[in-house]
Amino acid sequence: xxxxxxxxxxxxxxxxxxxxxxxxxxxxxxxxxxxxxxxxxxxxxxxxxxxxxxxxxxxxxxxxxxxxxxxxxxxxxxxxxxxxxxxxxxxxxxxxxxxxxxxxxxxxxxxxxxxxxxxxxxxxxxxxxxxxxxxxxxxxxxxxxxxxxxxxxxxxxxxxxxxxxxxxxxxxxxxxxxxxxxxxxxxxxxxx
Length: 192
Description:
By secondary structure, this protein is α+β, with helices and mostly antiparallel strands. The chain has helices at 24-30, 42-51, 95-114, 137-159, 163-187, and strands at residues 10-13, 19-22, 60-65, 73-81, 87-93, 116-117, 120-121. Helix 4 runs antiparallel to helix 5. The longest helix is centred in the last third of the chain and has 25 residues, at 163-187.
């Protein structure tokens, strides 16, 4: 099968990660690497060794790959393995998505530094006495979920030099949770 004309970055590999064939877009993107291992950073290497295999056929894996234009770029790698132990990988770049998120986080960071959000004054925490959702346990759960998700994303953000944004979000969530706790403490009846 001639893979040169495939319209997406495609790699055909063996179980030792040796590249057997690559599409035209993959050749342009990754140069003439002889092994998938040549394209991986240390973290992605560990991930690939665990998850790029016949036992994980049809599983999508996110990997940082070295390209000709970038030292590392995030890709979703879709894999399918045939009965001869040959892996067929399609690599879809995630850089545009990362750039959009990075731009939004940068704008949020700038707005927080200026004390504005979208041109309006920014209050770090809305006082819960006046919020329509005061005392609502769903608000606390939502904030805890946001905090957990940001903590999961934090290593990836640090990897792309955006760890400060995760810290800002976590700080704001802690401030909001503190405000809720303070408000709830004032609402408790006084025991005599």
